[in-house]
Design a protein that fits this description.
Blueprint lengths: L4 E6 L3 E7 L7 E6 L7 H15 L5 H13 L6 H19 L3 H21 L9 H18 L6 H8 L6 H12 L3 H32 L18 H15 L7 H22 L1 H23 L3 H11 L2 H14 L9 H21 L7
């Protein structure tokens, strides 16, 4: 298009590019420091369409630059009310997915709404961003312990996990270890360190909140609030609500939400089927393999970014929450998730990565997005 050769190196926080005309040794090099990326998957989808139109000649370079500026400054696809609704829905659905205790879901929804309010107000102050995970986890831990001390029949540790599920970098951990295993060491190591620090911030905040309330408030002598358990058929409705909440949280365009719901159903259904017949580790492997194959097939057929669907599916396999459970198991010896100890969580995480690697080997993606 411009007759200029280029080479690019990208990591989560830096972007390096080199340009030259005829002599490869005569290069102009530029290095840009970037902020840690968020998960605005809707914007990623629009950028992919722009790149494709430029490659096919339907959009020239100057128009592409103008369009990129419009995409970068465009508002979210959903209103603030929609985002305020998706947070409690996500927390409640995650709790219902893994626990039949209806009060766990109610407590997770209330705390998630509180965390959304904190996140929304602190988003206008960049200096609060580094401590937001600590603050959110602290409030989640303190609130869960207060509700438990008031006689609410809940599992405080599980409620904390459910309410901060949006903060847990399960996808970043998965992508980091996948990149490291495929020799993309710089990008993988950067993502791994960033995800590990986020996990430690969340764990420190939650532990602090639990400790502070436990120091000042005595536990209730008996259970004062209890509700009947959720029915067994809750699993698939909870999965649909959780997938919908994640689509809104990640700014997926409304017309693409059905694809997101289908990706979640494939990942969770395949993992559950594999776990039923072959055990937890095989379930994680089969779930990751299924969503990886589906994402790559989607990218081949529609020429869209398959990584978006893979993101939604991988998050539903809950790798980050299993690592959070691992940290809690190391410190307190207690397991948050049912039947998930620290060692099992770590091996399950490796099985998930293996499933993604095999999916890319069996059906390679045609594009990096």
């Amino acid at each position: 298009m411009l007759g200029i050769n280029g080479s690019f190196l990208s990591s989560p926080t830096t972007f390096t590019c080199a340009f030259w005309l005829d002599d490869e040794l005569d290069q102009s090099i530029h290095i840009e420091r970037l902020d840690a990326p968020g998960l605005n998957l809707g914007r990623l989808w629009e950028i992919d369409r722009l790149i494709e139109s430029m490659e096919e000649g339907r959009c020239d370079f100057s128009a592409g630059i103008d369009r990129l500026e419009i995409i970068s400054s465009s508002p979210a696809h959903y209103s603030i009310f929609s985002h305020a609704l998706c947070w409690p829905l996500t927390g409640a659905a995650f709790a219902a997915l893994l626990s039949s205790n209806s009060l766990n879901s109610i407590a997770a929804a209330v705390i998630s709404l509180l965390l959304f309010a904190i996140t929304h107000f602190t988003s206008k102050a960049p200096h609060w961003r580094p401590i937001l995970p600590i603050l959110a986890a602290f409030l989640a831990g303190a609130s869960a312990m207060v509700l438990s001390a008031a006689g609410m029949f809940i599992d405080p540790l599980f409620v904390i996990l459910s309410s901060i599920i949006i903060f847990i970098p399960g996808l970043s951990l998965t992508v980091a270890l996948t990149e490291i295993s495929t020799s993309h060491l710089i990008s993988g190591s950067s993502r791994l360190v960033d995800a590990a620090m986020t996990m430690l911030k969340l764990f420190f905040g939650a532990l602090s909140g639990v400790a502070v309330v436990s120091f000042f408030v005595s536990p209730a002598p008996s259970t004062l609030w209890s509700l009947p358990p959720l029915p067994d058929w809750r699993i698939w409705p909870a999965l649909a609500v959780l997938s919908l909440g994640l689509c809104i949280a990640f700014n997926i365009p409304g017309r693409k939400i059905p694809w997101g719901l289908l990706a979640g159903a494939i990942a969770f259904g395949a993992a559950r089927l594999g776990e039923t017949h072959f055990g937890m580790y095989a379930g994680m492997f089969i779930g990751a393999l299924a969503i990886g194959l589906f994402s790559n097939l989607f990218a081949r057929i529609t020429r869209g970014p398959g990584s978006i669907l893979m993101t939604l599916g991988i998050i539903l396999l809950v790798p980050g929450s299993r690592i959070y459970s691992l940290l809690n198991h190391w410190v307190s010896g207690e397991d948050i998730l049912p039947h998930i100890s620290g060692g099992k969580a770590l091996i399950g995480f490796i099985a998930l990565i293996a499933g993604l690697l095999f999916s890319n080997a069996l059906l390679p993606a045609r594009k990096s997005l």
